[in-house]
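Before any further analysis, we paired sequence with structure tokens, yielding the entry below:
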Amino acid sequence: MPFAQLPGVRLHYRVDGDAGSPPLLLSNSLGTSLEMWEPQIGVLEARFRVVRYDSRGHGRSEVTRGPYSIEMLAQDALGLLDALAIPRAHVCGLSMGGVVAMWLGVNAPAHVDHLVLANTAAKIGTAETWNARIDAVRKGGMASIAPAVLARFFSPQLLEQPTPMIAQVRATLEATPKEGYIASCAAVRDADLRHALHRVRAPTLVIVGTGDLSTPAQDGRYVADQIHGARCLELPTTHLSNIQAAPAFTQALVEFLTGRA
């Protein structure tokens, strides 16, 4: 169970794949952990050196005092790459992790090879909705919001007959430290990269979900429209597309990163 002691935070991470393969950094969504990428790992580790980690305040990573910012979370990602002596990597993030990846594409282009932005937006939600969620967690803990969040993560059919992977996501969400979750909600609430997207120069794939209520497909299409040469792929899925549409997601990711798309 490796950890990296970075300036101001201790991050839990995992590396899969051959050390000589192209590095790929995966950044998790709000309320999940590095385990959310399990559906992809079997395929990805055969082609890439896959680095995944628990975002600050999530999983086994340290819960530091909030609020957090997307810049802070992105600097954590850069710090982890530096600790692993990886100067440049493909970067894929989903939801909050997608905003982190977006920030890296805008502000740290020398460290980004290809960029994949999944089920995310340059501005997610409104301050009012995020503040309401923060207040709910403060008053009732993670259990008070878990049903509503899961209803956005997955379709009703999957929640009625959950797979082990979905049961794991539920358990991870409910076990997320509320202080880390609240601080991360503030980071997403305050992030707005709409006017900076034109600065992304990395080849970019944007993945959207037809039934995604958290980051609607039109928000992802806006991101793709603002990034020169970006491609947009729409999948018939809800928010956690890498789980609900795992085969299609994984195939699109591999084809894009290997130049076969």
